[in-house]
Each structure stands twice: as C-alpha cells, then as structure tokens.
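dumping the sequnces here before i forget
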Amino acid sequence: MRHISRNDVMNLFNDIRARVIDALDAMVAAGDLPQGLDFANVTVEPPRDPAHGDMATNAAMVLAKPAGMKPRDIAEKLAARLTDGPIASVEVAGPGFLNLRLAPGIWQDQVRAALDGGEDFGRSTYGAGQKVNVEFVSANPTGPMHVGHLRGAVFGDALASLLGFSGHDVTREYYVNDGGAQVDVLARSAYERYREANGLEPQIAEGLYPGDYLIPVGEALKARYGDSLIDKPEEEWLVEIRDFATAQMMDLIRGDLALLGISMDIFSSERALYGTGRIEAAIERLRSAGLIYRGTLEPPKGKLPEDWEAREQTLFKSSEFGDDVDRPIQKSDGAWTYFAPDIAYHWDKIDRGFDQLIDIFGADHGGYVKRMNAAVKALSNGRVPLDVKLIQLVKLFKNGEPFKMSKRAGTFVTLRDVVEQAGADVTRFHMLTRKNDAPLDFDFAKVLEQSKDNPVWYVQYASARVHSVLRRAAELGVDVSDAALAKADLSKLDHPAELELIRKVAEWPRQVEHAARAHEPHRVAFYLYDLASSLHSLWNRGNDETGLRFVQDGDLDTTASKIALARSVGVVISSGLGILGVTPAEEMR
RNA sequence: GCACCCGUAGCUCAGUUGGAUAGAGUGACGGCCUCCGAAGCCGUAGGUCACAGGUUCGAAUCCUGUCGGGUGCACCA
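..and the predicted 3d for all of it:
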C-alpha cells in the first residue's frame, strides 16, 4: 500500500483516491490494464445523490478509451480490488461509475481529525512550499484608499492566506506607483497646502488633488521647512516635497490596510527602479532574446484617435506570446512607458526566486494582462506562471438606493468610511461572497442585517450556536476540551441527519484545496455558508426529535459525542473564517 | 472594428476544473417555538443553463459562430 501522509489522511477524498490509484496500478501489474495509462483525470468525489453512496469514482469511464476497453469491464475488475480498509462496498452504476460505501466509523473519524487538527484541519501540503508572490492593492500613493481598492485588498489578502493554508510560501507585496506624473501632481497639491499652512491662499488648480487629507501634510511641511520654500521655483522643491508627500500617503495607506487587518510583507517602489540600471537590464534581456525592435504600430482599427500619427517606437514583441499587438516600452521622447518599469519589476520578482506570480488588478486594467503575461513568459523562459486576477466593481447602496460617488463633488467614499460603518469582519466577508470577476453589490443596510439573507450573519450565528451548546454542556459537567472530546465515542453519531453534517465537515480539506487551486477564496465563503446551513438544519431537527439535540440531559457520554460534532463544525468555521480574515463570533447578543 | 470578462429560477447569485435527476438566497404560498438561541428550520411553486452547431460514453462547464451586457484598445498610470 502506498505511503499515506498525515495530510492525506486528513483529506479523506485524497485517501480514497490514492486507494483507487493503487488498485489501478495493481491492475496494470496484473495485465488487466495496459501499460502507460495516465490516471490524472481519475477523480473521487461525493455524489450529488446520497443514494449513490459515500463517494464515486469515474476511473472506469475516463480510462475506457485510452485502454481500449469497455467501461463496464474495467469497473468490475477495479471493484473487486477496492473492497478493503475503509471501503466497505462497491457497486457499478450508470454508465460506469463506481459507487463506494465506506466502512462504519470512517466518517466519524473525520470529526476526530478535526478535533485533533484544530484549525490546522484542512491544511494541506499540496503547495509543496512553492514560493508565491501575491501583488495586490498597489493603489497610487496620492491619497487615502477608496472603495475601488477595497475589494482587491480583501481578495488579495484572503487569497494569500488561502495559499499559505495549502502549503505555499506566500509573500504579500505592494507595488508603489511612485514613478509617474501623478506623484508630481501630488507634490504640487501638497505644496499648495504648505502655502496654506503658512497663511497664504492655496491655489488648487484644475488637475490638482483637492482632498483635505493633504492639509496635515502641508502643516508637516511647514514644521519641517518653515517658510523657506515659499515663492521658490518648482525645481527647488518638487523632488523633496514629492518624496515627503509620497511617504506620508503610504503611511495613510498602511493605516487604511491595517483597518482591514492587512499587512504587507514588502512594498516595492517603482521609482527605485529608475537610475539603477534595472530597467535597462530587463529590456536588454529581452533584446538579447530578439524581442525588442524599432517599429511603427498600425493604427487601431475602428474609431481612430483624433491625434493619431504614425511613430517609430521601441517595441516589445509581446505578440509572440499571445498578445494582440506588440507594445511600446519607450515614448517618442525616449522616456520609458509605464510598461517598462513594470517589466523590470516583474523580472525582479522572478529573480527573487518566486515559483509563481499572482497580480490582482481592477477589471479596468484587463487590457494589460496579455502584455504582462507575455513579459513574464519571455523573462522567465516560461518557467514562472503569472495569474492575473481581475476584480470587478463594487456598487454601493444605502437601503437599496444607489450611492452616487463623484470625486469632483468630494462625495467619493473612502475605505475608512466603509470599514467604520460596516466593520472589518462584515466588510471582508461580504467582499468575498462573489466571484472576483462578477460585480458586487454592497448595501450598508443589508450587510448589517441580522438574517439568513446576510451570509456573514448566518455563518456567525452558526458559530455562536456552537459556542452556546459548548457552554451548556460544560455546565452539565462535560469536559469540552478538544482533547477530551476527541476521546468520545463517536460511533454514537449514526443518525442520517448527523452523518450529513459530518460529511460537510469532512469536505473541508477538499473544499479548501479546490479553492486554493482555482485561486478563488470566495469558495471558502460559500462552503462556510453551506456548513452553517447544515448545522442549523440539524439543530432545528432537535426541536422535534429530542434525541438529536446536542445536549442530552442526564447522558454525559452521548452529550460528549454530540458536542464533539458541534465542536468540529466550530473548528472548521473558525479555520475558514481565519482564511477570510474574519473573527468568529462566540455569541450574537 | 479587435481583445478580455459575463449571460443559469421573477430578482441576486453558486455550480466540486467534463459527471448521474442543474442548486442556494430572496420574493410567493403552506407548515414548525410548554423544546439545546424560531435572528432559525421544513415543504410547495418556479429552468429551452442567451441562441445555433461541434467535440464524446457524458457539456451549464471545452471549441466555433450569432445575439445581448460590461471593460479596455499607440507617446496615461
């Protein structure tokens, strides 16, 4: 029998799949199957219909064609080799599925595994320690974060946690766009506030940042420079004020992130790439691969920009890597485009030894992903995969009414506004209740509502019920420590309604692994909702069937078994919420 | 015009990387509290998975085309 790691034991589905693969290997050895088959598509999954048993495998069907055999023949030979250990019985069904029934106690063992593992239950090693870089937020350092940044921030942080939980070595990274014209605008805006602090009338011209958040920056500048910069030409103060203001803005942003419980491992500066030869070196690397040339791009088809004119530019041959056209890396005046330092930046990430890169962009930057993918492919010789996740817009509502925002009118909503009104836990969970590429509605009234319409509340309510029942059992004299509960007689948990909940708990390792593979943390949120639903369902059955209540007056042993189940649900909820960055509730009052 | 994302119940959305009879919430209707937390649970109703082809044992899922919505399209970042 193949060696099974502790991790695989925790993921029952992987364990059973390993047994199926072993049986297939044995069939090959015995000549029942041809050599050289690929078992990668063999899956073991919970069947949708419970009547189909505990688990089902498609092995016979996916192997029929490559093996040149009938599914039914494979299925029957495979079935004969599977009834062993945890698998109690096997039947061939439908077009060639093998429906597996597990031996008594196997599911219950998963409850024990959850209690033994605690919040490590479901942790996996499939990431194999791979170094993954998750770059997210990367908001321009020109002001506080607003709602537009909020969702990407939560998504990136949760994805990073999810990958860490599944065995990756994760770095959270922020790319500071401090190299372009917008930080000069910031400097000029801050300068006006500096003049204001010196008692002069600020002249916030069109195009400057009007926000109040620069007023304290102006005062800090006064404290530092007095009036020595007043009426001096821009050349004398631009760089100093720019660097100062940028640093202040980054402090602001770090504070905003902290409100959400987000802490970056690294802030990488775009500006720091200039003048170090890093950009030139990155471009040179592409040039030596024959991917840089001087050329003139075709005008875009369809509506032609008014001021379009043919220009010779330095181009990157991104079209060789799936991009639609080649992309300019230098402007006509010879300065780098935004793309050039970004190429250098990604090369730097590759250079730092990451095995996998993930970028999180707003959906409005979708047009950028092909060229970035092309660059990373070219720079790493295809070694390092880049996955760009696009985050769709958040639509704000208040009691069903759309919340109009306008930067000009000063009514744009900051991240701080949202978190202070809704709370970090609610905000974070709600941001993850949609797939990243689907638009999301955020209604300040609804997210705070206490009903099952609100998934945050619903999951928290389940958590609170678990804690409630643990408290009651403790009052009756049950030792509710995990170590003690793990010793309870779990074979008492044999009612179909209880088994249904146990199955949900047992699915956690599998769900979290799938979520990690897909880079989709929202799956964790949906699973938790589902798990909460199963708990509520069992709970309410206890109203009619008193034998199903978690607390059984006068029978401490049975209570301990049932509390063990409740606690395993609680363990998974806090583990799952932990990945999402949400604190589980102990009570709702 | 081109590229990317999306199209699933009246509404808002999931859908286990191709599996068996497509699921939740909400809204509508009907049940369940002398009972561990009813802020909950159970049931009924509701579908041509935008449309048309194709791939195969098998498609909401993969490919092609069409329609509809969003986003982006040289010297902005």
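Residues 1-9 of chain A have pLDDT under 50 and may be disordered.
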